Amino acid sequence: MGIIVTKDTRVIVQGMTGRAGTFYTDQAMRYAPSYVGGVRPGRGGTKHLGLPVFHSVAEAREATGADASFVTVPAPNAADAMIEAIEAGIETIVCVTERVPQHDMARVKRALAGRDTVLIGPNSQGILTPEQCKIGVMPTVDARPGGIGIASRSASLTSEILANCSAANLGQSTTVGVGGDTIHGIGFVDCLTRFRDDPDTEAVILIGEIGGREEEKAADYLSGLDYGKPVIGLVAGRHAPAGRRMGHAGTLSVFGLETAEQKQSRLRAAGVLIARDAADVVRTALKALQ
């Protein structure tokens, strides 16, 4: 079954007529027939990629029954796009846009307060339930349906580990890119909770990084909890120099934040099986499932 998105998810794309929106919508539509329309103010009543285009999210939702939105809007307007989708009652929002200003994301977090909307991102590769639904930019060539749930902060490591899993006949229930920015939507704890409740997920892989608090929150959640399924963890950045920004805002390691080794130690103490490196993740998962 997987989590958050299924074969019944109906997706609209905010910014579909732009260059990035066109490219990634076309890829996603080729993978699964989940897409029902796009949103571009001033372009309502037209068609793009064979789908109807609407002036607003509310109009698109009413006409198509969409319950998910794929936000490809550039950074200066991405927060407004997310807030529009939240206010229109969209259940799942995936924002792949990078470099959304943090003060804009603070507005988005306030808009989410008290609502049931799930936000994935920004700066996320998206979400994929194999052979059912893809929202985002992650490659699908190696994805296979199965029992491994993946929650990740790193797009490149996700692709590598997913491919390794499939090569070892470990298919995936759902893969979630939680996003690399400091202020973001869904995190490891929410993913762990959903994977725990999903009967099709047999084990969970957490792909972490230096910077941020996702790994610490996951360790606190798992501590003293009978999770009932193996959790395999990898924290990238063991050799990163302290105090430097590494790649994006979420991996800023500064005074007061834990190192990769410290994060791994906390996760291990909470019962997570720690992999030495990306190649060791699948070996660890196979041993745990045996």
UniProtKB/TrEMBL annotation:
The keyword Ribonucleoprotein does not apply. Signal peptide: none annotated. The active site is at H248. One of its GO terms (cellular component) is succinate-CoA ligase complex (ADP-forming). One of its GO terms (biological process) is tricarboxylic acid cycle. InterPro entries: Cit_synth/succinyl-CoA_lig_AS, CoA-bd, CoA_lig_alpha, NAD(P)-bd_dom_sf, SUCC_ACL_C, Succinyl-CoA_synth-like. The keyword Transport does not apply. Keywords: Ligase, Nucleotide-binding, Tricarboxylic acid cycle. Residues 4-100 form the CoA-binding domain. GO terms for molecular function: nucleotide binding; succinate-CoA ligase (ADP-forming) activity; succinate-CoA ligase (GDP-forming) activity. It holds the Pfam family CoA_binding. Belongs to the succinate/malate CoA ligase alpha subunit family. NCBIfam families: PRK05678.1. PANTHER family: SUCCINATE--COA LIGASE [ADP_GDP-FORMING] SUBUNIT ALPHA, MITOCHONDRIAL, SUCCINYL-COA LIGASE SUBUNIT ALPHA. This is Succinyl-CoA synthetase alpha subunit. The lineage of its organism: Bacteria, Pseudomonadati, Pseudomonadota, Alphaproteobacteria, Rhodobacterales.
